[in-house]
Structures are given as structure tokens and as C-alpha cells.
Amino acid sequence: MTSLENDQTPQKEETDKLVENSTEPEENTEVVEEKKYFTCSSCNLREEYEYFGQEPPYTKRYKLNEDCYVIEDPFQPPRQGEFIILGAHCQDCNKPICRDSICSFYYDGTYCISCARCKKFSFPSVIQEKLNKVVL
Ligand SMILES: [Zn+2]
Ligand SMILES: [Zn+2]
């Protein structure tokens, strides 16, 4: 909620569920999910992803600061809270872009390289230098 309008509802309750390390009910409900694929608009990398959003279900420790395509880390044992970010949407043009340094640049959010080039001069000079190394 970012807009502060004159709310008619007087009370807004922040219903943040405080889930602590409680016992997770092991349910054997096999949900047949459709496979979802992330495709990078730059290199055409296509990967199956498991979760899109800011709070990967694998861990409660992190909250991502943007919506990302996420999979559980296949190289770690499950339920370790390890995950891999496949990509995100460019902050500027909103294209899906992978985390490869030839495709995207991260500064306060993910940018595709072409948008990063365009926006370069609005970045702090330290970031510009970093970007120059990657892009040029
Ligand atoms: Zn890519
Ligand atoms: Zn872009």
C-alpha cells in the first residue's frame, strides 16, 4: 500500500503472520502444477522457475527487494533455505532479464543492459564505473 487516500476503513491491521520456527505440517498433497518458464529477453535463456515474487518460500530469512524468478538451489539439500535467482524484470522496460552480467545490471534493482546504458548517467559515478567495466 503506497497511496494514502482518505481511507474509509478506519483500522488497517497489518496482518503479518509471524511464523516462527514452528513445526511445518508435512502434507502429502501432490499439487500438479503447470511448469512455469522464465525466458530472458536478452540471451533467450529459458529455465523452469518455481517462484516469482519477493519472498521465496524456501527461506524466511530474506526478502528480495524486487520480484524475482527463483528456484530452490539444486546443488543444496532441500529445505536449507538456499535458492537461486534466475532473473527479474527490468526496472525500466519491464522485460524479463536473467542475472547474467551480459544481460543485466543491478543497481537498486535489475536493469537490462540497454536500459542500464541509457540510464547510466543517472547512476552515481561509482556505479557508472562499475557499469563501464561490465558493458563496454
Ligand atoms: Zn540473459
Ligand atoms: Zn530494460
Q: Which helices and strands, and how do they pair?
A:
Blueprint: E1 36-39, E2 46-49, E3 51-53, E4 68-72, E5 83-89, E6 96-98, E7 104-106, E8 110-112, H1 113-119, H2 125-135
Antiparallel strand pairs: 1-2, 3-4, 4-5, 5-6, 7-8
Bound molecules: zinc ion (2 copies).
Number of helices: 2
Helix percentage:
10-25%
Bound molecules: zinc ion
Structural class, from helix and strand content? alpha+beta
Q: Which regions have little confidence, pLDDT < 50, spanning 5+ residues?
A: none
Rg, rounded, reads 19 Å
The number of domains: 1
> Strand tally, please?
8
Task: Output the keywords.
alpha+beta; four-stranded antiparallel beta sheet; 2 helices; 8 strands; 13% helix; binds zinc ion
Short characterization:
Helices cover 13% and strands 24% of the residues.
Explain this structure to me?
With 136 residues, this protein is α+β, with helices and mostly antiparallel strands. The chain has one domain. Helix content is 13%, strand content 24%. The chain contains two helices and eight strands. It has helices spanning 113-119, 125-135; strands at 36-39, 46-49, 51-53, 68-72, 83-89, 96-98, 104-106, 110-112. The strands form three sheets. A four-stranded antiparallel beta sheet has the order 3-4-5-6, with no helix packed on it. The protein has a two-stranded antiparallel ribbon with strand order 1-2. A hairpin with a 6-residue loop joins strand 5 (83-89) and strand 6 (96-98). It is elongated, with a radius of gyration of 19 Å. The chain starts with 35 loop residues before the first strand and ends with a helix. The mean pLDDT is 84. Residues 90, 92-93, 95, 111-112, 114-115 line the site of one zinc ion. One zinc ion (ZN) binds next to loops.
